[in-house]
Amino acid sequence: MDAGTIQQMADRVAALMDEKLHVRGRTLGDRLRKGAGKLPRAVRAEARFLESAAAQAQHPRLLVQIDDARVARAYDACLRYLNGVDRKARRRAMLAGMASSIAFSLFVVAVLFLAVLFWRGLV
Known about the structure:
By secondary structure, this protein is mostly helical.
């Protein structure tokens, strides 16, 4: 595997992070620093390995030390996760979580309000 191929892999993962997770940055490393919490631990580790392999591939003497099979596995793991991310489902889950949180808070306030009314003998 040559340096251009590894860099293309890193660029593809970075583009998918922008497209699917809305993480901005110039390079894969920038995007990993900004949006690392949006990736599972295993995928984050694979993306970091891919980033370090892309940096290592820029130097001809270090290029021969890169394990091509490991780079391919890291790339596949990142693609598998990022292609499985559904933006609409993530947004729906976030809105459902917010709505349930608000509903629970209103329920607690209503129960406390009724408890105070009962305590004062107004109910």
